[in-house]
Amino acid sequence: MGRDHWKKIWVGSAGNMVEWFDWFVYASFATYFAGAFFPEGNDTAKLMNTAGIFAVGFFMRPVGGWLLGRVGDRKGRKAALTLTVTLMSASAVLIAIAPTYAVAGYGGAAVLLIARLLQGLSVGGEYAASATYLTEASAPQHRGFASSFQYVSMTAGQIVGLGLQIVLQRTMSAEALHSWGWRIPFIVGALGAAVVFYLRRNMLETEVYEETADDGVGAGEKGTVKALWAHRREAFLVIALTMGGTVAYYTYTTYLTKYLSNSAGLPKQTATLVSFCALIVFACLQPLAGKLSDRIGRRPLLITFALGSTFLTVPIMTMLKHAGSFWPALGLSLLALVVVTGYTSINACVKAELFPTGVRALGVALPYAIANALFGGTAEYVALWFKDSGAESGYYWYVAGCAAVSLVVYLTMRETRDIDLARVGTADRAPASEPAAVRAG
């Protein structure tokens, strides 16, 4: 990979890291600010309220996916990526200055809700713009490796957030954290977004986007729902293949810290440290798995993930609840994240490889955002609902069931590794001599 390719990957990934830092610190710091925006009551009920607002952000993601996917296909990947980080910066500022319940009643929760709606709008477009940009910016034989940096940067954002949380936990009192310390990460996120805004204004557009003239999508239809409907099979495929992966991912990342603290009974500091260490290993695994997919294909990794998640979720979650200390909890968390890597490392490029250039950003964004709104965004709320109902183990089966549905999709979908991105959607997608699995049709 040349210097220009690495530069594109770095700029796209750096912005993605800040975006997801802001997105995830909401979840990781929720245990500290839940009481700031709602009246006194049951701790689980407070977490459910903040988790509900967290889920609302996901329901804005389809809107963001449509709006920013359209921008990405019509104006370019650079334009979409610059706009997403602007919206995320605004949302971080709103959360940082939101008034508490004691000051403004439910007005503070309303500000929090608006901020989450902006975050949902931003992330709804960020995922697709980043996935499309990283996939298109790499050489064909390195697409799996290059696109894996999307989840490296996503995880890095969460690692930085958790690292900041660990520092604050060790340098501030619990009272200070609950009172005002939780605002610090959102201030940091806003400042980081300003830096990334500058970087993205000077980033390079992908050659695939600039050079593709005839991909079966007319100039006036680029980034439109009408053009996407012509590829509705691929759009529904994205929803189905995302279902199991997004539930598992959010279970073992954003929800894990709260599960270890609220259900397994570990101290907050220990639960945070477990997540922090596990995510560092998880981030390092992404490029390795992405590179493996460039050699053996995408489907073997997806199938491995689905099998592992279907049959291992219940025992892993059950043992995590009774882990009791740092090392057993870390070992089980790592096992779960190794399984999830089969999905996270390559799902970005798999989705981008399904669509022609003129509708690629929208084709990835909208169906992926819908799947996340239905399954990823509600995962934490569903988990807390099962817990509050006294049937917490039901959530383990829910995660396994979602993975089982995606397993069926992985077993029946075509391989996408060798698809030519510039020719997806054209009448002549692959030479007749090539295997059918290689063809885009």
UniProtKB/TrEMBL annotation:
This is MFS transporter. The chain crosses the membrane at residues 20-38, 50-68, 80-102, 180-199, 235-252, 272-289, 301-320, 326-346, 358-375, 395-413. It comes from Streptomyces solicathayae. It is a multi-pass membrane protein. SUPFAM superfamilies: MFS general substrate transporter (SSF103473). Belongs to the major facilitator superfamily. Metabolite:H+ Symporter (MHS) family (TC 2.A.1.6) family. Keywords: Cell membrane, Membrane, Symport, Transmembrane, Transmembrane helix, Transport. Residues 8-418 form the Major facilitator superfamily (MFS) profile domain. Its main location: membrane. It is found in: Cell membrane.
